[in-house]
Specification:
Number of helices: 6
EC number: 4.3.2.10, 3.5.1.2
Domain Glutamine amidotransferase: 6-208
Distance between the termini: 11 Å
CATH architecture: 3-Layer(aba) Sandwich
Order of helices and strands: EHEHEHHEHEEEEEEEEEH
CATH topology: Rossmann fold
Number of domains: 1
Helix content: 25-40%
Oligomer: single chain
CATH superfamily: Class I glutamine amidotransferase (GATase) domain
Shape: globular
Radius of gyration: 16 Å
Keywords: Amino-acid biosynthesis, Cytoplasm, Glutamine amidotransferase, Histidine biosynthesis, Hydrolase, Lyase
Strand content: 25-35%
Main location: cytoplasm
Structural class: alpha/beta
Strand order of the largest sheet: 2-1-3-4-13-12-11
GO molecular function: glutaminase activity; imidazoleglycerol-phosphate synthase activity; lyase activity
Largest sheet: 7 strands, mixed
Number of strands: 13
């Protein structure tokens, strides 16, 4: 049984994430302890609320260092909702520009859509090479957000590289935004797998099997 730590930094649906992971067979611990977060087979970084406030909470529990050290050792991390957004370089909310973890280039910014927040079930555009979304190409997932990443420059310029480019899953609400990323040990979803019923459970099971 794989040990999964859900990082408690004062922001996120901790108990629903814990229950959803336990449902698919993980041995789950909710923790703010950096050492526990480092040692688990997988680390889940949830998040709800404002980008800057989440980053403040994350820094308070040494989260950016923990995430960076895990990834340096090829140890899996899954970000969820704002827990995905803070993995990018910057977040711009209400005119306030906040620094993120910088694991990926890109900016979290307001969605250009007639109705915000984007709340409810939506389909996603899954690339063929996705492991996270294997068997879920026609499924719908539950979103709650007003901000997103509308441009993902990493690996999209065609420059030759020995590294595999990230696998990016997109969704649309008004315009196109990043719904999921798979990049080596680092994965993330903009939607909430723990609120997405059987499809979300299957996605978490896919991630768990990859640990």
């Amino acid at each position: 049984m794989k040990k999964v730590a859900v990082l408690d930094y004062g922001s996120g649906n901790l108990r629903s994430a814990e229950r959803a992971l336990a449902r698919v067979g993980a041995d789950v611990t909710v923790t703010a302890d950096p050492q526990e977060a480092l040692e688990a087979d997988g680390l889940v970084v949830p998040g709800v609320g404002a980008f800057a406030a989440c980053m403040d909470g994350l820094r308070a529990v040494d989260g950016p260092r923990v995430i960076g050290r895990r990834l340096a050792g090829g140890r899996p991390v899954l970000g969820v909702c704002v827990g995905m957004q803070i993995l990018f370089e910057r977040g711009v909310e209400h005119g306030h520009d906040a620094e993120g973890c910088g694991e990926w280039p890109g900016v979290v910014e307001p969605l250009d859509a007639p109705v915000l927040p984007h709340m409810g079930w939506n389909t996603v555009q899954v690339p063929e090479s996705s492991v996270l979304f294997d068997g879920l190409e026609d499924q719908r997932f539950y979103f709650v957000h007003s901000y997103g990443v509308r441009d993902f420059p990493l690996g999209s310029d065609g420059t030759p590289s020995p590294l595999k480019p990230p696998v990016v899953t997109w969704a649309e609400h008004g315009d196109r935004f990043v719904a999921g990323v798979e990049n080596g040990a680092l994965s993330a979803t903009q939607f909430h797998p723990e609120k997405s019923g059987d499809a979300g459970a299957q996605l978490l099971s896919n991630w768990l099997r990859s640990l």
